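User: Sequence recovery, please. Input:
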């Protein structure tokens, strides 16, 4: 009787241990994805947004997306989740939008806050095109992603000493340079006089529609 009771207790203990391990693994899988999977999901979600910026502002799509992946940790960084800021852009003089505080190079620094991730992509392009220190980048070819990466670091976009190498590694590991030709994008896009780009179903009389299928920016 005692032996049977001991066996039953041991069985229940082992069962409980197995169940706890199972629940732990399930919880881990739900909350943590492999870095490569997170990056691929991010690329799938925002590659067209990067192409959009390239069409409007002549910034290589692969560089834009690599910066977003690096700065936002593929969209899961604290700053990205709190503020939709996917490029680590600080407030700087003249910013009149919403803000959020986060410690970076210094304690409680001011960062820009956006309503959507798309606004972050738009503001990143405006940030680069409106500041003289980045003007030399636009003299580079659209396919010269290495020149762009080194140029961003040289112009002071980031303080990390290996920033350019980190961006280049992201681009090459994920073949993001293919975005610069965007041959796979088979939808029509509308460019309005206001430099706003819209889906085909948002056409207005002032819009200019054209197909970018198989087009390459030189």
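Assistant: Recovered sequence (218 residues):
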């Amino acid at each position: 009787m005692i032996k049977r009771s001991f066996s039953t207790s041991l069985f229940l203990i082992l069962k409980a241990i197995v169940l706890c391990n199972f629940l732990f693994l399930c919880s881990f899988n739900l909350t943590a994805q492999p870095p490569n999977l997170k990056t691929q999901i991010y690329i799938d979600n925002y590659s067209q947004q990067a192409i959009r910026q390239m069409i409007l502002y002549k910034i290589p799509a692969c560089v834009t997306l690599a910066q977003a992946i690096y700065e936002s940790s593929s969209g899961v960084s604290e700053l990205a989740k709190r503020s939709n800021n996917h490029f680590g852009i600080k407030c700087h003089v003249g910013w009149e939008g919403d803000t959020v505080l986060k410690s970076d190079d210094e304690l409680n620094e001011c960062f820009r806050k956006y309503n959507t991730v798309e606004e972050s992509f738009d503001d990143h392009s405006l940030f680069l095109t409106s500041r003289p220190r980045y003007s030399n980048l636009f003299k580079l070819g659209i396919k010269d992603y290495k020149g762009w990466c080194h140029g961003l670091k040289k112009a002071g976009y980031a303080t990390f000493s290996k920033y350019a190498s980190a961006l280049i590694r992201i681009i090459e590991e994920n073949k993001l340079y293919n975005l610069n030709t965007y041959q796979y994008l088979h939808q029509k896009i509308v460019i309005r006089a206001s430099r706003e780009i819209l889906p085909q179903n948002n056409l207005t009389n002032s819009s200019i529609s054209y197909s970018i299928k198989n087009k390459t920016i030189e």
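Confidence is low (pLDDT under 50) at residues 24-31, 183-218.
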